[in-house]
Every structure is written in C-alpha cells, then in structure tokens.
Amino acid sequence: MTAHIETAELHGQPVLKLQTPDGAVALISLFGAQVLSWVPAGGEDRLYLSPDAVFDGATPIRGGVPLCFPQFAGRGPLPKHGFARTRLWEVSNTRAGKDFALATLRLADDEASRALWPHAFSAEMSVSISGDRLDLELEVDNTGTTPFSFTAALHTYLKVREVEHLRIEGLRGLDYCDSADGDAIKKETGVGVSIDAEVDRIYHNAPPTLLVREDSRAMGIHSQNFPDVVVWNPWEDKCAALADMPADGFRRMLCVEAAAVREPVELAPGASWWGRQSLVAM
C-alpha cells in the first residue's frame, strides 16, 4: 500500500489532500500554497485553522501555514506579508511512496505581480508528510536580468491546547526585535518562553531546533537557511479585533515562524535560494 494524493475542495476552494498508509494527512490550499491542516500518524491536527477564516479566493486564510513573500509583515511598500499568500498557485509535481506523500506548487511573476513588485521570479513550495513529520520548503529563483531582494516567512500557526500552559525552549540568549514594544531590541533571558500577554517578536540568529513543550506533548521545530524565527500571539484585545478569529482563538494557537526578516535575501540574476522548516510531533 502506498500513499496517495487527490484533489478536493474545502469551503469551495481547491485543495490537495496528501495521505500516507499510517494515517498522516495534510490539506494544501492552491490559494497561497498554504497548508491548512496536518494530522500526524495516529494523532490529531497540529495546525490551527481559525473557524472564522474566510475562503473567498481573495482574502488571506487565517491559520495553517501562510507564506509571507516577498515581504514580511508591513516592513516595506507591498501589501502586508506580500502577495504570494493571495495568489493561486499551480501544482507542478506530486510523488507518493510507501511512507511519504509530497506535493510541489509553483508561482511565477505575471503582469499583476510585476505591477506590485517589478521582478521576474519563480517560487516553489514543497510540502511532504511522513509519519509524525511535516516538511515545508520554499525555493525562490531569480529568472530575470536584474538583482532583487526579499524577506519571507513560513507563518506557522501551531494548534495548542492552552497557550498559557506551554513553553518554547531554545531561544535563551538571543537578541530579538519586540514588535509589540516599538521594535525595541531586547535579549531573551528566560530558559523557556511562556505566553501570558501579547507576543510579537523576531528572534535573530536562531538555532536550527526549537521545542514547544505542552503538558503531555511537544512539537520539535527544525529550520534550515532561515536565520530568524518569529513568535506571535495576538492575545485578548488584538484577537478580538480580528474579524476572522473567534474572541478566544488566541488561547488555541501560537505562531512559530521560520523567517528571513532582519537581513533581506539578495538574489543575483540566475541565482536561487531555499529555506526549510520541519515540524515533528511528539
């Protein structure tokens, strides 16, 4: 028996469903190349998708793993988090084996993207599941004749049982930009980071492995070629102001995002870049 991949719909939007024989399942929206759900083998969904998320083919989908490209947040002239998350991607490759399923989606520049960001590019998002593991890889190619720079992040919404009862390990000693405090630069002093108020931080020179530990389970987060990690939770007041989140949604989610933010990625003509994030359910 091998894994299989099929096309489906979720709230009227096209998705790919990846499934392995051991029961691991992932749903990927073609809108934004966004993973919406990931259930590791024998487990429960470990990604948070807001029950109030909008599926209209134009509005960013709240939850899962949105892709921020070619701009992170409002740090530049483009729409917040860039345009990749609100574009329809094409499926360029799928593969299934005895214990894995993989899909690659592709986005290239067109007239609409060049009106916002005047560069020739090709981007691929690859998603693979196997057992208790989800692997995400973003690759960007400069297909034009002039250099360009970009920032990017895999805006991963982890589904948690109670955000106040978790701890993020692996960040001690790192400098971070505190976006909730006027972009002040601070140093992380705690052995484990707890969430008991709004958190919006960009940690620099992040280690390759972090651990989000809950009472009876954990999530290993491994990144490659992403120098930063973003930790975000809107907390009560800002969550209540989000039309596509329930008022208590902040208690069930935590964003831990592999990112390249502080130093934009510079790509010469013909050059390519990749970054990877892997989640391992424990």
TrEMBL record:
Protein name: Putative glucose-6-phosphate 1-epimerase
Keywords associated with the record: Isomerase
Catalytic reaction annotation: alpha-D-glucose 6-phosphate = beta-D-glucose 6-phosphate
Family: Belongs to the glucose-6-phosphate 1-epimerase family.
EC code(s) of this entry: 5.1.3.15
GO cellular component: cytoplasm
SUPFAM superfamilies: Galactose mutarotase-like
InterPro entries membership: Aldose_1/G6P_1-epimerase, G6P_1-epimerase, Gal_mutarotase_sf_dom, GH-type_carb-bd
GO biological process: carbohydrate metabolic process
A Gene Ontology molecular function term of the record: carbohydrate binding
Protein species of origin: Zoogloea ramigera
Active site: 155, 257
Pfam families: Aldose_epim
